[in-house]
Amino acid sequence: MNDINKGVFPMVAKTLFGFEEILAKELNNLGAQSVKTGVRNVRFVGDTGFMYKANLCLRTALRILKPIDKKAISSEQDVYKVMLDIPWENYMTNENTFAIRATVMMQKAKNSMYVAQKAKDGLVDRFRNLTASRPSVDKDFPDLSIHLYVTDKFVEVSLDSSGASLHHRGYRSATNIAPINEVLAAGILLLSGWRGESDFLDPMCGSGTLLIEAVMIACNIPPSLNRKEFAFQKWLNWDNDLYTKIEESSLNKVREFTHSMTGYDKAPSAVRKAQQNVQNANLSAFITISENDFFQTQKHQPEKPLHMVFNPPYGERLSIDMKVFYKRIGDTLKQHYAGTQAWFITSSLDAIKSVGLRPSRKIKLFNGKLESRLVKYELYSGTKKIHKLKSTK
User: Fold this and answer.
1) Which of 281, 195, 220, 218 is closest to 58 using CA atoms?
2) What domains sit in the chain, N to C, each tagged with a CATH number?
3) Global pTM value
4) DSSP readout, 305-350?
5) Contacts for 291 with CB less than 8 Å, ≥ 6 apart
6) Tens digits of residue pLDDT in 324-380
């Protein structure tokens, strides 16, 4: 496990609760081997080139870890010995900087910071023993990011190949009061079945994140294409030529999008911010954003199917009358958006009852720490009974 230059090796893709299956599907589609889902993670096997591709192309991964050691332990103190025995000289020099993050699931552990401190001591002492000098800690911009997963029975030590979370795509410079995480946005879109096969509308678009992610899915654009750096670019075995080939190969798979992509927001400041983010992502040719109150709008082309996905206010950071607001969502959908698949996420579970429509699907997700539901409403042209009769013929 310690040779980072040869063959295939195990990796772990971290994700949000509820996205494990769609992340596994993404990995399978990219060509990963031995894909296995866990809780908020998916394990898989690949080579160095695939690690680059996973960071560049996965939409629902938060980071890609490369486990380099796993040992049985009985206490926090054992973490020091595990770190001392790892040949860190294969991964860094004493002139490099490093940072350690620890996820601690031990019943009697003091805290994760204490465990990370013991791990740091082990790494530093190894270099002191070998070279009489030591590398320094840099929590913000380390040359090597190390992740520890510690339980009562074992510690797994991994290199973090991503660095900053992969939801930092590189296109969002302007945000509003309650912006949606880019990975959450992409996961919602994939769960909704969005593939770019119809017109798309986000009627409360805020920073424009759902629109940007929707175009990237529709056109098969790598989501981290605009990102400035990954942690693996500072590794000793960084292969720039290989990464360039992976990037070029991914760009060759970009496809056309021939439908409309529209966003509304009633706040002029939100419209400006969304347009700026769309421009940053180089997607202005695909997306039209305008100042509009959703409750005063109607479907532009009644005869065509429409895929609608949005993130309405939850009442957490934006003060509104939730029951009235969500009733107006339902009324607008019923009266003006026949022939639409409408999806939205909310943490206001009571407010869903005010919509006045029965959701055909409810999926449990988390928006940050807020337990939420992704709900689907199918708005038929004519009655649902007639629609069903047509679909059986």
Assistant:
1) 220
2) 9-160 (3.30.2130.30), 182-223+238-392 (3.40.50.150)
3) 0.91
4) -EEEEE----SSSS---HHHHHHHHHHHHHHH-TTEEEEEEES-TT
5) 264, 265, 266, 267, 268, 271
6) 999 999 999 999 999 999 999 999 888 999 999 999 999 999 998 999 999 999 998
